[in-house]
Amino acid sequence: MGIIIAIDGPAGSGKSTTARMVAEQLGYIYIDTGAMYRAITLAAIRANIPIDEENLSTLVTQNTVTLEQSSRGQRTLLNSQDVSSEIRMPEVTNTVSRVSASASVRKAMVSTQRKIGEKGGVVMDGRDIGTVVFPQADLKVFMTASIDERAKRRASELQRKGIDTSPEIIAVEIEERDRYDSNREISPLRQATDARLLDTSSLLPEEQAEIITRWAKEIFPKN
Fold first, then answer.
1. Which residue among 10, 13, 34, 123 has its CA within the 20 to 30 Å range from the CA of 93?
2. For residue 129, which phi and psi values (nearest 5 degrees)?
3. Which 3 state secondary structure label does DSSP give 79?
4. 3 state SS of 191
5. Nearest Cα to 123, choosing from 221, 16, 12?
6. CB pairs under 8 A, 24+ apart, for 157-160?
């Protein structure tokens, strides 16, 4: 038993790392909703189909995305295959915004996300958790950071995986993705009116998690 914690924000703001730490500290389930959209994006790339509503509406009915919790954290399965690493590749990252803008894809993913989190005791991060998936969430947080800081974080993450890139290249990609996510017709990226804003530009992940955990305990002291 517990509350629903919704963490939204743009790419590179620290959502996933922080949400995972908060869930661990509270003994909650962590759900990375972005992984679900990435899995469908991977399916589209594998199928080599044009990214349009007609194709995506068919694709989403032909593929099954599931999230499994293990001792190592969340695993993302596409048709029972573990694609947790593959969905983080640049090709997926550069395409996922277009796929996640699909009404058919979002309808299917949001339905699944609500079933997972409806009983509470969950930390869910994404771009529309507090505005669309769980507008009634007990705690809503909107995380942000400067473009430069977000680009540094994402570049470091990719470089650790052996992918050659730079903060300058990533900054351009992030700005483009921000524009797309904020202006899309379906579930645009925006801060919920009752969400708490957390600028993480100068904060370590541990500090970010500590702040959100404190907020959660203020709302639900039993945590």
1. 123
2. -65, -50
3. coil
4. coil
5. 16
6. 158/90
* 61-81: pLDDT as tens digits: 999 999 988 777 789 999 999
**Three-class SS state of 51:** coil
| Contacts (Cβ under 8 Å, ≥6 apart) of 85 | none
CATH number of the structural domain spanning residue 173: 3.40.50.300
List, for residues 38-55, the tens digit of each pLDDT value: 999 999 999 999 999 999
Name the pTM for this structure: 0.90
In a domain, 190, yes or no: yes
CA distance to 3, 52, 110, 114, 119, per residue, from 29 (Å): 11, 33, 17, 13, 11
Which residues does 38 contact at the CB level (< 8 Å), separation at least 6?
A: 76, 87, 88, 92, 93, 96
